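User: I'm putting together a small comparison set for a docking exercise, and I want a reference complex before I start. The sequence is below, and the ligand is S-adenosylmethionine. Could you produce the 3D structure with the ligand included, as structure tokens?
Assistant: Of course. I'll restate your input first, then give the structure tokens for the complex.
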Amino acid sequence: MNPFDFFAVMERYHSFQNPTSEAKLDLVMEYCGIRNGMRILDVGSGKGWLLRRLARRFDVRITGLEISHIFADEARRLIVEENLQDRITIVEGPAQTFRAEAESFDIVTCIGASFALGDKGSGLSNYENALDWMRRYARQGGSIVIGEVFANVHPLPDSLPRNRDYDVPLLWTLVEKMRQRDLYLRGLVESSLDDWNHYHSLHWQAAIDWALENPKSDEVAQLLDPARQRLEIEADGRLINWAVLVARNGLPHRELKCLG
Ligand SMILES: C[S@@+](CC[C@H](N)C(=O)[O-])C[C@H]1O[C@@H](n2cnc3c(N)ncnc32)[C@H](O)[C@@H]1O
């Protein structure tokens, strides 16, 4: 199964596709100081849960970038159903092909999709590439919001199956990479074990239901893969965690004497 179909099947029951909670995502937007009139760019917007929640509460203009036709379609359907078309636009395609004026957004978010902004030739991690890309579009004093995994223990035990292809730095390393780019942490939420278990329970139920609906399919083995489930049980929320970091883009250095 290609990755788009795989995630469409596995995340059919998710309203948002990350291991946090509604309350934590609301808190994240509070940390950004969201208010009427703001312009927001969301990379990897999935089914558009966050965008729709914001657009229902604030008079904001939001652009969501989404590569999966299935998720983009689902987001557009829900946007129309909720009559939010004037506030939200979904741009379908790879995020890196998106072009807009520099510094033209108040808030730039990327929740669980930093890999979409990666550049293998750069020698930097996807996370660092994502920060650089997002900074270009955020105004000075605006906010960058990024959801990312981090390691609770370092180094991770050798016994951990290595079947995921992302770097897992410590939380402080994520913050340090921000500071190197003139991005200053102003808010942080972390997932709890319950958040992870809820996130994966929806995956497991979706895999079981699809297997029962398609018992003859060769894809069943991929969906019910025990190595993936072992990693989800043994690592997620225990050895590896997830955070949404909110940073202010820049500080007025000349006015803050001690920063030079
Ligand atoms: C883990 S999901 C997170 C979705 C959403 N941000 C949320 O939290 O509910 C990652 C999303 O990024 C999208 N994506 C992956 N690669 C992308 C790319 N190159 N450009 C735009 N979107 C991409 C996926 O299709 C998926 O919807």
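The pocket of S-adenosylmethionine is lined by residues 16-18, 44-46, 49, 65-68, 71, 94-95, 111-113, 116 (CB under 6 Å). The two ends are 53 Å apart (CA to CA).
User: Thanks, that's exactly what I needed.
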